[in-house]
Design goal:
By secondary structure, the protein is mainly alpha-helical. The chain folds into 3 domains: about 60 residues, no CATH class; about 100 residues, no CATH class; about 220 residues, MetI-like fold, CATH 1.10.3720. Helices cover about 70% and strands about 0% of the residues. It has 20 helices and 2 strands. The chain is extended, with a radius of gyration of 33 Å. The termini are far apart. The relative contact order is 0.08.
């Protein structure tokens, strides 16, 4: 009996001990927490230095705080305005009070400048009206404001103000696509004299496509050669591929200006060989831009191609040749499909980098070769129009995401086909 009594606490203690499954789950949670703790600093760094700035910049393309900050009461009333006739006396009174409150302050200047970007002359209207307030007592606000400027008696003026009395606006994105609002608030095409951005994006995508194809035609044979050569020789060639990374892009662009100018080494060599009589115009045009950009971006095509080709076994080609398949057909049917992930990754990388290039077209090209990044820099550094800079950046960002989605879809389909075989 005493022995039975002594074993009961031990049995109870054993029943409370964690099972093997619980111990394994606890160990797995601890392991995951350790991994998360190791990854957390890098995740925070990427969030604060990469994702947050991008999100903040994209938000500026639709952000519209100036008018609400300067005219809070008027903006709130205009959101419920039917837009058929002039606003009521309450709205006119609210406008007079808002202008009196911000007269001579930075918020009024910011709102007037913002409105004047879309409709010329509106800054003058705002400042003129702000100087006239407070209005005389005993006079209706509507009558007094129309006396200050007759444009306050036009429904189109209030339509324009109501359209901008919102914390968000699509004006910048529409302007980046050569679209704007008419007096009735409908989206229409911009005047031909001001419609430039569609052509800019066509030029940007066209130049990026040409550079990508040139890099592919030059990089594919070189990567194939490096993948089939002995390791020692391939390593030496890899050093030459990576050698341009040791030099600044600005230095390389300046070197191309020296080489391609009228009295540069290229023209002197061509004239020395008797191929030309007059110097060729190879710089400050599209030719110089293409040459320099292909030279700068070629390693970004070679590296993904080489990494994929290095993993393709030469036994597949030997087997195809031994079965009587011609060399070119063996390469096209056996080797090339396996290299497509490298082709896709290289083309995607080069195309995305090319879309965002600014220095090379700015130094080697003429005004007709400037890409979208030039206008982003222009609006950021010169006119300080962050909305337009963010809108152009947003379109480039969306194009990048679409390209990546296409690439991921193609690679996914190829992997599915490979598994099916």
């Amino acid at each position: 009996m005493s022995e039975l009594t002594a074993t009961l606490p031990a049995v109870a203690a054993g029943s409370q001990a964690p099972s093997l499954k619980q111990q394994l789950a606890r160990a797995e949670r601890i392991r995951k927490l350790k991994y998360a703790a190791l990854i957390l600093p890098l995740a925070l760094f990427l969030l604060l230095s990469f994702l947050w700035p991008i999100a903040a910049l994209l938000l500026r393309s639709v952000d519209n705080p100036e008018v609400i900050a300067a005219l809070p009461q008027t903006s709130a009333l205009l959101r419920g305005w039917d837009g058929q006739t002039l606003p009521d006396e309450t709205t006119f009174n609210a406008l007079a009070r808002d202008l009196a409150a911000v007269s001579g302050t930075p918020p009024l200047a910011a709102a007037a400048r913002r409105l004047n970007m879309e409709q010329l002359g509106f800054r003058t209207l705002m400042m003129k009206t702000a100087r006239a307030v407070p209005l005389a007592e005993g006079v209706g606000a509507r009558h007094a404001l129309v006396e200050v400027d007759e444009r306050w008696g036009e429904v189109a003026t209030w339509h324009f103000l109501a359209r901008n009395a919102s914390p968000w606006t699509a004006r910048h994105l529409l302007a980046a696509l050569d679209r704007t609002y008419d007096e009735q608030g409908r989206v229409v095409k911009t005047d031909e004299e001001q419609a430039i951005y569609i052509d800019v994006f066509k030029r940007t995508f066209g130049m990026a496509l040409v550079v990508t194809l040139c890099c592919l035609m030059l990089g594919f044979p070189l990567a194939y050669l490096m993948a089939t050569l002995p390791v020692r020789t391939a390593n030496v060639m890899m050093i030459f591929v990576l050698l341009p990374f040791w030099t600044s892009i600005l230095v390389r662009v300046a070197a191309w200006i020296v080489l391609l100018q009228s009295e540069g080494l290229v023209n002197q060599a061509l004239r020395g060989l008797g191929l030309i009589d007059q110097p060729l115009q190879l710089v400050f045009n599209s030719t110089g831009v293409y040459i320099a950009m292909v030279h700068i971006l070629l390693p970004f095509m070679i590296l993904p191609l080489y990494s994929v080709m290095k993993g393709i076994s030469p036994l597949y080609m030997r087997a195809a040749l031994s079965l009587g398949c011609p060399p070119f057909r063996s390469f096209w049917k056996v080797y090339f499909p396996q290299s497509l992930p490298g082709v896709g990754a290289g083309c995607l990388l080069v195309f995305i980098l090319c879309m965002g290039y600014y220095i090379t077209p700015a130094l080697l090209g003429s005004p007709s070769e400037q890409m979208a990044s030039y206008f982003v820099a222009f609006y950021t550094n010169q006119t300080i129009n962050w909305g337009m800079a963010a809108a152009l950046s947003t379109i480039l960002f969306i194009a990048t995401l679409l390209l990546y989605m296409v690439y991921a879809r193609l690679i996914g389909n190829q992997d599915a086909a490979a598994r099916a075989r």
